[in-house]
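Customer escalation, tier 2.

The customer says the design service returned an amino acid string that "doesn't look like it belongs to this structure." They asked us to rerun it and document both sides in this ticket. The original structure tokens are below, unchanged.
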């Protein structure tokens, strides 16, 4: 907190506040046992919400009004597209994943549904997931494979597996992840 305060004070002292976007974000959730993930299940190195859902806070006076919130599902790679657009860099649309999340927030566009994928390997353990709308398929592979389906609109803590009660959605998301994994080596 102190270092963030020093950064903001320095921007103010040099009269750079209004022309500087400050972004506070983490790349993953906290360590298991060391961080309080609140209602979220999982932690760092998992694809459960406790391992991938993090705060994204932006400060840009005169561009983003204080207190504005967005529920838009996003990923840190969206910041790459945002920063390049802000720098007016010419990047072909098919060269980057991601949407301009800064523009989404500053123009207060309506939130939209999107599909996001995750995969992380640590030793013999691999976690993978796909989220489409509010449904999320999660797979953990180690000595055996475990799979779950969650509805994040009703179960942010990912406590109720819906794979047997929603077999069609379970199969669809599982297939989406498998197709993505063929493309992303």
């Amino acid at each position: 907190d102190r270092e963030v305060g020093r950064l903001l004070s320095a921007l103010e002292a040099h009269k750079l506040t209004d022309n500087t976007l400050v972004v506070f974000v983490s790349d993953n959730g906290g360590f298991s046992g060391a961080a309080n993930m609140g209602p979220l299940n999982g932690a760092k190195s998992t694809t459960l919400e406790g391992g991938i859902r993090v705060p994204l806070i932006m400060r840009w006076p005169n561009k983003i009004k204080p207190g504005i919130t967005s529920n838009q599902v996003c990923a840190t790679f969206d910041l790459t597209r945002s920063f390049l657009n802000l720098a007016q860099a010419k990047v072909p649309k098919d060269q980057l994943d991601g949407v301009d999340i800064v523009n989404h927030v500053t123009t207060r566009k309506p939130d939209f549904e999107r599909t996001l994928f995750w995969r992380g390997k640590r030793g013999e353990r691999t976690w993978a997931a796909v989220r489409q709308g509010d449904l999320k398929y999660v797979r953990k592979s180690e000595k055996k494979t475990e799979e779950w389906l969650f509805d994040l609109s009703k179960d942010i803590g990912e406590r109720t597996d819906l794979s047997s009660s929603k077999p069609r959605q379970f199969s669809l998301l599982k297939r989406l992840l498998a197709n993505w994994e063929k493309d992303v080596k």
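Tier 2 assessment: The sequence is consistent with the input. The longest strand covers residues 115-122. The two ends are 38 Å apart (CA to CA). Sent an explanation to the customer and offered a walkthrough call.
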